[in-house]
Design a protein that fits this description.
CATH superfamily of the largest domain in chain B: MetI-like
CATH architecture of the largest domain in chain B: Orthogonal Bundle
Strand content of chain A: under 5%
Largest interface: A-B, 47 and 50 residues
Radius of gyration of chain A: 24 Å
Order of helices and strands of chain B: HHHHHHHHHHHHH
Structural class of chain B: mainly alpha
Order of helices and strands of chain A: HHHHHHHHHHHHH
Number of domains of chain A: 1
Oligomer: heterodimer
CATH topology of the largest domain in chain B: MetI-like fold
Number of strands of chain A: 0
Largest sheet of chain B: none
Number of strands of chain B: 0
Largest sheet of chain A: none
Strand content of chain B: under 5%
Shape of chain A: elongated
Distance between the termini of chain A: 41 Å
């Protein structure tokens, strides 16, 4: 009886409700997200179509044109070896975006799985995983990465490994916090009562409801890894010359600051622009999905 | 819980963290490809040195016993010997650590000078052009690579305007302050945005609290309300956040010391990585992590004493 009454009271209200606004419609009205995505798309287009956008080879040495300031012929000027910096910045986009994206995958997957294990099974799993998280977080991020790269040897592959070993802790904390709240909800208790396996409950039921904050965080994290890769190149532990990585290009220009400011300055601006785009996308996604 | 009891409990919590950190740093040595003794003493060491180090580390013993030997040597402040310099690591990193700590403290001072007024005024002038300007600037400064900022500051303030030295540590207090200004500013430009954002948010939150309305209703001037009621409360999370970012600060010193050619511990770390001087790399990793743990402990204690809402 009560149910029938409730239904008659609620039904007119429900029918009068405006149609649910879909997330992509909201996305179209999110200024941060739109701006960030547009800038990033532009950078991607420039990076992908670099061979068609520039007549120069990013590796071609031409001493006759060394250290030329920006001009119509060389938009960003040339470096010590006469290489066109604009071309190298375009090709650099391929490397830096790829590095940012690849770096984020391993910490995301490992952290999410370990955080889920800790929160879902609790007790000893939780104590063990969270103590490891505490210990790893006691180290300054970049110093632990440097120490690991020191052991494994310089280069991008070892940087990915070092980042995976250090950065998973953030995702573990994020997912653990979400699952601790979510696992108390009725649908999870019901899924357990129905005899679903733990793996199925975690992957099919919990994950879709807790993964969003991690995805939003990962978007901004890509910018952090681009900065990290650049810093490691500067410290001589990342990409080696003559590869046109933005950080390596800034480093190559440092000795020529007094005579050729453009060598370091312009690749740096490329990093800043990419970072802004990724931050705006991160902020926009956080707004869109109402993630804290 | 009494305040003293809280302090003791918090101090005890530090022990497992420190042990965990030593365990990771200890394991680093065993992850190096090849023989750990050769890694420690260098490829050019004599057979006699290799035998001596092998015996002192007990490398023929089980791993857990080796770890205990390692802990014992740490307690005796024996961090091994640098095979690049041929001197004890402790005496090598001591003076350099002072440079890094000086840069870090200078950064904290500059960050305070930059972030407190900007955070406060952005909150007080919410949604005005000033607030929008500050918030837009934060988005940009947060994603600038530290070493690039350092290079740009050298280019603008040292080379173009001749205001500050390009590199070096200087001598005497005035010399140090002048030489370390740009390194500290470089790091501040990375740290300040995080703190300005947090201070702005906590100011806005406190401004909406009932006790602020009461203070205004009592007839206090706006300046008094802000100074004695709003800022005091809004600064507490700011202090905590500053403590939390000690790791960022320590990591940042590594890069700025390389940019500005400072004789600090961070620059030593990078040079030691390049020279495969593993005892120094190991010791510095440990020292930096130890510093972070100690600063976090101090922050927690200061927080507990500052905020009257914290119950022990």
């Amino acid at each position: 009886m009560a149910t029938a009454q409730t239904r008659t009271i609620l039904t007119p209200a429900l029918t009068r409700q405006p149609a649910r606004i879909r997330w992509w419609e909201q996305a179209l009205h999110n200024r941060n997200l739109l701006l960030g995505t547009s800038v990033l798309a532009l950078i991607l287009v420039f990076a992908l179509f670099a061979p068609w956008l520039s007549p120069y080879d990013p590796y071609a040495i031409d001493y006759a044109r060394a250290l030329q300031p920006p001009s119509f012929r060389h938009l960003f000027g040339t470096d010590l070896y006469g290489r066109d910096i604009f071309t190298r910045v375009l090709y650099g986009g391929r490397i830096d975006l790829q590095v940012g994206l690849i770096s984020v995958i391993a910490p995301f997957v490992v952290g999410t799985l370990l955080g889920a294990l800790a929160a879902y099974f609790g007790d000893r799993w939780d104590s063990l995983i969270m103590r490891i998280v505490d210990i790893v977080q006691a180290f300054p991020f970049i110093i632990l990465v440097i120490a690991i790269v020191a052991i494994l040897g310089p280069g991008l592959r070892n940087m990915y490994l070092a980042v995976a070993l250090v950065a998973w802790v953030v995702y573990a904390r994020l997912v653990r916090g979400e699952i601790l709240i979510e696992k108390q909800k009725e649908y999870i208790l019901a899924a357990k009562a129905l005899g679903n396996s733990d793996a199925r409950i975690i992957l099919r039921h919990l994950m879709p409801n807790v993964i969003l904050p991690s995805i939003v965080f990962a978007t901004s994290d890509i910018a952090l890894y681009i900065l990290l890769a650049a810093a490691l190149s500067f410290l001589g532990l990342g990409v080696k010359p003559p590869v046109p990585e933005w950080g390596a290009m800034i480093t190559e220009g440092q000795p020529f600051m007094t005579t050729a400011w453009w060598i370091s300055t312009l690749p740096g601006l490329a990093i800043v622009l990419t970072g802004i785009a990724l931050s705006l996308i991160g902020d926009g996604l956080a707004d869109l999905f109402r993630v804290r | 819980m009494m305040r003293g009891e809280y302090v003791i409990r918090r101090l005890i919590q530090v022990v497992p963290a420190l042990l965990g950190v030593t365990l990771i740093v200890f394991s680093m040595l065993h992850l190096i490809p090849g023989d750990p003794v050769t890694a420690l003493v260098g490829e050019h060491a004599t057979d006699e040195t290799i035998a001596r180090v092998r015996a002192s580390l007990g490398l023929d013993k089980p791993l857990w016993l080796q770890y205990l030997y390692y802990l014992r040597s740490l307690l005796l402040l024996d961090l091994g010997e640098s095979h690049r310099f041929g001197s004890p690591v402790v005496s090598l990193i001591g003076p350099r650590l002072l440079v890094s700590i000086a840069v870090a403290l200078y950064t904290v001072a500059l960050t305070t000078i930059i972030s407190v007024p900007l955070g406060v005024f952005a909150a007080l002038r919410q949604n005005t052009w000033f607030d929008h300007l500050v918030r837009s600037a934060l988005v940009v400064t947060m994603v600038m690579p530290t070493f690039w900022v350092g290079i740009m500051l050298i280019l603008l303030l040292s080379i173009r305007l001749g205001l500050f030295p390009v590199s070096g540590y200087g001598s005497g207090l005035g010399g140090h302050l002048r030489h370390l200004f740009l390194p500290a500013l470089t790091l501040s430009l990375g740290l300040a945005p995080i703190l300005i954002r947090a201070l702005r948010a906590s100011m806005l939150q406190v401004l909406g609290e009932e006790f602020v309305k009461t203070a205004r209703a009592k007839g206090l001037s706006e300046a008094q309300v802000i100074r004695s009621h709003v800022l005091r409360n809004a600064l507490i999370p700011w202090v905590t956040l500053l403590g939390v970012h000690t790791g960022f600060l320590m990591g940042g010193t590594v890069i700025t010391e390389k940019v500005f050619a400072l004789p600090g511990a961070g620059a030593l770390l990078i040079d030691s990585v390049a020279a495969r001087d593993y005892p120094v790399v190991q010791a510095l990793t440990l020292v930096f992590a130890g510093l972070v743990i100690v600063v976090n402990l101090l922050t927690d204690l200061v927080y507990a004493f500052l905020d009257p809402r914290v119950r022990f």
